[in-house]
Design goal:
Blueprint lengths: L1 E8 L3 E7 L5 E8 L9 H19 L2 E9 L2 E2 L6 E2 L13 H9 L3 E5 H12 L8 E6 L3 E7 L2 E2 L31 H4 L1 H14 L4 H4 L10 H9 L3 H25 L3 E5 L1 H4 L2 H18 L3 H4 L2 E4 L6 H18 L1
Parallel strand pairs: 1-4, 4-7, 8-11, 11-12
Antiparallel strand pairs: 1-2, 2-3, 5-6, 8-9, 9-10
The structure holds zinc ion.
Zinc ion binds next to loops.
């Protein structure tokens, strides 16, 4: 069987795998980006992942026909190089993964921004199937976003379209790793929510947020904040509602520009637990509908992403498959 390989470069792990022509996962794995000894270069780790995929395909008797890569940062559409900023993995800026992996595998290679890959996966095989206009948000350590417009990824001539996480809503706001201030990501990522929860717990150690610290690590988890909010803790509810409110400002701004049918939200905050995560999605939906300017905003569907951490490599592999089929037409 012809199979498509996908690699998703993340801040901690490289996730990689193989999909069949219908998008089903045939194989998946992950590696620490710095290697187990902490010394390997990210590009070397990516090459090792590609070789592992080739080995798996050979042993399984499948024929790899394309490779797709999802990377942080914006991707120059002409040179395919990773452009700054890539605050979580600065060392990959300037790398040409397409050239490297063509040499490594002999396959046609496609590269796109990681959030675009996740959006494409949800559009083709996940929660957004059949919805030709959608916004896909991944809320984790940052706020990733990919826009599907008329069934195509919105990239723009420099590859930097659809970066909702780095739209500033306050130029005097907190410093963002991208260099700007007050980016949406600084208020709505899991990192931002946990920072606010940690501050609230320090202020009132006897409060519910102070009680949900992980016994082993001493850290507050997203699940802990969601649970505290679900149990009626006012500080936890306020933190989540404030993040939902600011995220809704960003989403509605995008809605007024691209008029999508749905927003699909994935990542730790939406996945944490179905019941508690729904609380957060409902808060976002309420703010969206309250402030919607147009029919588009009032009717906007808000859904949960379904492909989880696999979305990045599935989307990368699917984009590789699409590039190969359009090249052979
Ligand atoms: Zn930023």
């Amino acid at each position: 069987m012809d199979v498509h390989l996908g690699i998703d470069i993340g801040a901690t792990y490289v996730k990689f795998g193989v999909i069949d022509p219908d998008g089903h996962i045939e194989y998946s794995s992950r590696r620490l980006i710095k290697g187990d000894d902490g010394a390997a270069r990210a590009v070397d780790t990516v090459a090792v992942c590609a070789r592992e995929l080739l080995t798996w395909a050979a042993e399984a008797g499948h024929k790899p026909v394309s490779l797709g890569v999802g990377s942080p940062g914006t991707i120059n559409p002409i040179t395919h190089r990773v452009q700054p900023p890539s605050p979580n993995i600065p060392e990959i800026v300037g790398e040409d993964f397409v050239d490297l992996l063509k040499q490594e595998t002999g396959l046609p290679v496609m590269i796109d921004n990681d959030a675009n890959c996740a959006a494409w996966a949800e559009y083709r095989y996940g929660a957004g199937r059949g919805i030709d206009n959608l916004i896909c948000l991944t809320i984790g350590s940052g706020l990733g976003s990919g826009f599907i417009v008329n069934g195509q990824i919105l990239r723009g001539p420099t590859g930097s379209a659809g970066e909702l996480g780095h739209v500033s809503i306050d130029w005097d706001g907190p410093q963002c790793p991208c260099g700007n201030r007050g980016c949406l990501e600084n208020y709505t990522s899991a990192t931002a929510i946990l920072k606010a929860a940690d501050e609230a717990a320090r202020f009132d150690p006897q409060g519910l947020l102070g009680q949900v610290r992980d016994a082993d690590t001493g850290q507050i988890t997203v699940r802990g904040v969601l649970q505290a909010a679900k149990d009626g803790d006012p500080p936890a509810q306020m933190i989540l509602d404030d993040a939902a409110h600011k995220l809704a400002i960003g989403i509605l701004t995008a809605v007024n520009i691209v008029d999508p049918e749905a927003v699909i939200i994935g990542g730790g905050v939406a996945d944490a637990d179905v019941a508690a995560g729904s609380l957060w999605l409902n808060a976002i939906t309420a703010h969206l509908h309250r402030h919607a300017f147009s029919e588009a905003g009032q009717n906007l569907q808000v859904g949960r992403a379904v492909l989880g951490n696999d979305a990045g490599f599935i989307g990368a592999a699917a984009l590789g498959a699409q590039m190969r089929s359009s090249n052979s037409d």
